[in-house]
Nicotinamide N-methyltransferase
Amino acid sequence: MESGFTSKDTYLSHFNPRDYLEKYYSFGSTQSAENQILRLLLKKLFNIFCVAGVKGDLLIDIGSGPTIYQLLSACESFKTIIATDYTDQNLQELEKWLKKEPGAFDWSPVVTYVCELEGNRVKGQEKEEKLRRAVKQVLKCDVTQSRPLGAASLPLADCLLSTLCLDAACPDLPTYRTALRNLSSLLKPGGRLVLVDALKSSYYMIGEQRFSSLSLDREAVEAAVREAGYAIEQFDVISQSYSSTVANNEGLFFLVGQKLSRSA
């Protein structure tokens, strides 16, 4: 692994899901960069799943982290959702919310915002329950492995979603390319890949803890996705960046690709 890039073991020992949630997803009334980015993420995901019509039976979320925001619109378009992550503490934090355990993170302001985007067809609590019903499994995932979900036996997915994950999981461009090919093995031909990540970011902060990020530009992402066997249907860039004390990204990108029939 590239010298200095945050290791998998460091994530297991130092990634604090609660600090991460409170820093990036508290969704208060302030106009912080983090709140603005979260609103943009929610709007884009709403458009992809509820307007553009990316839908099907099974969605696998790669690198869910401890978050559920990325699945709130997806649960309107997919019957079954599988959440995945590498770190055990993130999986535990997800389970805590799914099981409504004491101390679970309060996503209600985010859920209310998504309900408004979707026309207030349902109230926040109904929306949360719909998502809980849709998430059938929470699995360990390692995108650097040829079988990212290990021995788990699943049907091929209609959609792979990955938000703010691969930049942090891949220390260099060859690993990033390989990860995309590894993930492609989980997706049926004709299925959709939805990628969201930071552009040109080399690190992000959680409190005093610094985590590495693979600095990618649009050209590198598009080339890697095509090489993995996808036709790119959409590539949008938003210029909003995180607070300078939190990360050094230059905007974020949203990509939708379709897996070609031929193998990658």
User: Anything to note?
Assistant: The first strand starts at residue 56 and ends at 61. Residues 8-259 form a domain with the Rossmann fold fold (CATH 3.40.50.150). The chain has nine helices and nine strands.
